[in-house]
Amino acid sequence: MSHVVKHFLRTKDAYPRKKTYPNLKEYLHIFANNDIIIFMDKKEIFRMHADFCKFMGHPKRIEILFLLGKKEMRVEDIAGKMKIKIPNVSQHLAIMRQRNVLEIRRDGVKIYYRIANQEILEACVIMRDLMIAQLKNKMNIIRKI
Hints:
- There is one protein chain.
- This protein is an alpha+beta fold.
- It folds into two domains: 4-50, no CATH class; 62-116, Winged helix-like DNA-binding domain superfamily/Winged helix DNA-binding domain (Arc Repressor Mutant, subunit A).
- Helices cover 48% and strands 21% of the residues.
- The chain has a three-stranded antiparallel sheet. Strands 4-6-5 form a three-stranded antiparallel sheet.
- A hairpin with a 2-residue loop joins β5 (102-107) and β6 (110-115).
- α3 (75-82) crosses α4.
- The chain is flat and about 60 Å long.
- It starts with a strand and ends with a helix.
- Mean pLDDT is 80; it is low at 1-18.
C-alpha cells in the first residue's frame, strides 16, 4: 500500500486521545486499534474506496448482495434464485470475496456465502433509496409539464 506511514502510539490510557499532526494535514488518520495510528494519503483512500465499490458495477452482484442480506446461501441456491448458471454466480462471488464484501463458511464440502459486514448492505439500500427518490422527483417534474 503506497503512501502509508505507521506511527506507533503507546499510551497508559485505555482509550488513546486523538492527536493532531500539523505537518500531515494532507493525510487522513485512521485508528487501527488502541496502539497504532495509520496515516494514509487522502488520494489513496479515494482509490481504495473506488476499488472497493467496483463490486457494485454489475447488477447481478447487487442482486446477490440483497439475496445474501436475508440469509447465508450456497452458490447453487443463489444461482437457482437468480435463474442463472452456477459458473456465472461463482465469478461474481469471487469478485465480491476479493473486495472483502463476502465471507464463506464451510460445512463439510458445502460452502455458504454471507455478507462480511451488514453496513455494506445498508449503504446499498441507502443508495437505492436515493435513486428511487430521484426517479420520483423526475416523474413529478414530468407531470408538471
